[in-house]
Amino acid sequence: MQIHTIAPVYDRDSRILILGSFPSVKSREQQFFYGHKQNRFWRVMAGVLGCEVPEDIPQKRDMLLTHHIALWDVIASCEIDGSADASIRDVRPNDLSCILSQAEIRVIYTNGGKAGELYRQYILPANGREARQLPSTSPANAGYSLERLTEAWSVIREALYD
Questions:
Q1: Which of 14, 54, 84, 113 is the most buried (most CB within 10 A)?
Q2: CATH superfamily of 2-160
Q3: What is the pTM assigned to this prediction?
Q4: Distance separating alpha carbons of residues 21 and 119, to the nearest angstrom
Q5: How far apart are CA 20 and CA 118, in angstroms?
């Protein structure tokens, strides 16, 4: 059983919540989200927000919080083979109430199909809040170029300024 040990990134000014499925092996090693160099999350977010790509964890955290974005994962613990979302089983979901009770989250997004599926299965019944599924920033999602991902994820920028 793998246990999620990375704390969520948020503050009371967060307005957007992005949820992945479960941290990759590299992310678990680094103790921060999207730690694998091939994952395009940080490049996509920098493109969407008009920022430089953050280089380290403090810069990543600062970029998110400056733009009122919270970040966490759907899963608190699970069985998983390496980093493969397809192998996830025996899921225990995270309790999002810590974020939702302290920040005025306007929109929830999931990073990829597995996160969206798990959100709908485990979290939506508990909180009744729909999440919008975005294409995965994982390198396994080879059908999406960086440019196409950034365009799809630009809905976040629009949601921030609505």
A1: 14
A2: Uracil-DNA glycosylase-like domain (3.40.470.10)
A3: 0.95
A4: 8
A5: 10
